[in-house]
Every structure is written in structure tokens, then in C-alpha cells.
């Protein structure tokens, strides 16, 4: 065997023995490198994803403006409801003999003067009686004039002795009786004229006509009841029932605001009477609030009142901080973990300065000033504090 034969014989051994073993080692090395790369990539992706999630969580927390209200001096108010009425209600009826109504001169809502005629009653009989009495008065005056003339002539003749002193006395008595009959006739005529004048139904004072219960052709008399109802001077009032505890805080002169049902307008009024007694059954008393005339104030209607009974200290918040739902008024308080917490509150009368919170806050909390409607209890926020306005 020569050298070439030997070399040729070893070639298959190198190809099919040593080279396959080297390929396996290279494959294992490449696989290990790939595995390390994949593990590192997974770790990097995991860490990067957590960072993005954390950043996203921080970015999702909304920024809200909060304030610490502290304590402010605010008006202390008492709330109540009640009925509207005329402060001085004047019923107007028949004061004379009555009769058939011929004319009605006013309508509900009209303003009238004191003594103005509201309705006229037929008076043909009374007119004839006045004429008769006036004629009788003229007869009596003529008789008195004749008696005076006869007395004057008798006094001129008594000095001549033609007439005795007794005749003078007689004629003087006749003259005096005639004058008395004149006075009686004058009084009777004035009485009849007064009776006839009372047939007119007149306003007892200046004011506003509220109701009318009479029509032309109607027969009225002393038993006909109320024909017109008036509010003296047009002044109105609200009668509201309050507890005895609230009554103790009120005095005549306290200011109040009255809001009729169905109206958004508030009317300024003033307490003019606080009931001196308390109903033993309801433990309530009546407070009467005087209100100037306004066409939206209708007697018999219903209204709400807020009465200023003094001052107190309470947190003062802007209206935007107060939320309302079926459970009542509430605010969002930001706790130490920067989470929104719902807090139920009671509020007082709204003023240009804000809304006083009478119960539920002590003034040291961080209150969401606005955008509370977009928050939910437990939500994380990023608060920015501002000073209370």
C-alpha cells in the first residue's frame, strides 16, 4: 500500500467522524447564545413594560384643584315653608239694607282708593223717599217762616196794647215748634240720604281687590256674606310654622327671603310677628313675614322662606364644590393617600360669597373645588391646593 492509498483510505474517517462532532458543538454554542439573548430580551421587555405601566398609572390620575376653607363668619338661617296671605285681609259686604245690584265697578287685581264705590245697588224707592222728605222740609220751613212773621207783628202791636202778653207767648211757642219741625225734617232727610248712600258698596281702605263674589242683577242683603275681599295697601305676608327651638332664635325685624312655589325669584321680607304661643300638639309656632306687593305673590299660594337669625362660623365653599344627588348634598375630600372620599354635608343659605357648610366639615379638609362630578370615591388624584376665595 502506497502513500496515496493510505490518504485516500483515511478521508472518509475525517468526513464522517470528526467533522460531525464539530458541527454539533457549534450548534450547541449557537443555541446557548440565542437562549441567552432571548432571556435578556424578555427581561428587558418585562422591566420596560412595568415602567410604562407605572408611568401610565401616574398619568391617568387627574389633576384637581382643592382648597382648605377654614372657618368664616356667615349668616345663621332658619328655613320654613307656609302659605301666602294678605297681611291685612279686608272682607267687604253689604252694610245697608241691600237690594238688587245694578253695577259692579271693579275686578280682582284692581287698585282702589279708600271710599271708592265697588258696586251699586238699585235705589229708585230710596230716591223717591228722599224727594218726599225734602218736600216736607220745605213745608216745615215755610211754616216756621210764617210763625216768625206773626210773632214779629204781634210784638209790634203789644206796645200799643192791642195784643196781650199771653198772645205773645203763644205765638213764640208756635214759632219754636215750627223751627223744631224744620230740624226734625232736616235730620230725617239726612238719615235717608245716608241710608241711600250705604247702598253703595265701598272700599273701607285703599288696597288691592283680591276676589269678587257679586254680579249685576244679584239680590244682596246683610246676610249675603263677603262680596269682595281686599288686601289693605296690597301688603302680603308668609305664615310659616317653625319649631319652638327656631322660634327662640327669631325676633321681629329679622330679614328674610321668600320664594313662591314655581318661581325662581326671591322676594325680600321682614319678620313682623313671632307667635307668643306654641301649639302643644305640634310643638310649633307661627312666624309672619311681611312682603311688599308683587304680582307673583298670590294669596293662598305656597312658598319657602329663609330667615336670617344671626351669625355663626362655618366653612365657606364655592357653589362648584357642592354636589347633589338623591342622598343629598356632598363634597369630595382628598385624604392623605390622595384619594377622593365622598362626605355628606348640610348647607346654609347661598350668598355671593359662597355656600356655608353647617354640618359635615371642620374647615381643615382638602376639598375638591370643582370637577367633583367627574370623580368617584376612592379615585386617585393629583391635588393642587389653592387659597379659599
From TrEMBL:
Domain Multidrug resistance protein MdtA-like C-terminal permuted SH3: 316-370
CusB-like beta-barrel domain span: 241-308
InterPro entries in the record: Beta-barrel_RND_2 (IPR058792), BSH_CzcB-like (IPR058647), MdtA-like_C (IPR058627), RND_pump_MFP (IPR006143)
Transmembrane segments: 27-47
SUPFAM superfamilies with a match to the protein in the record: HlyD-like secretion proteins (SSF111369)
Record flagged with keyword Transmembrane helix: yes
Pfam family name, one: BSH_CzcB
Keyword Nucleus recorded: no
Alphabetical keyword list: Membrane, Transmembrane, Transmembrane helix
Domain CzcB-like barrel-sandwich hybrid: 98-224
PANTHER family: HLYD FAMILY OF SECRETION PROTEINS, MULTIDRUG RESISTANCE PROTEIN MDTA
Family label: Belongs to the membrane fusion protein (MFP) (TC 8.A.1) family.
Name of the protein in its database record: Efflux RND transporter periplasmic adaptor subunit
Native source organism of the sequence: Sphingobium agri
Lineage: Bacteria, Pseudomonadati, Pseudomonadota, Alphaproteobacteria, Sphingomonadales
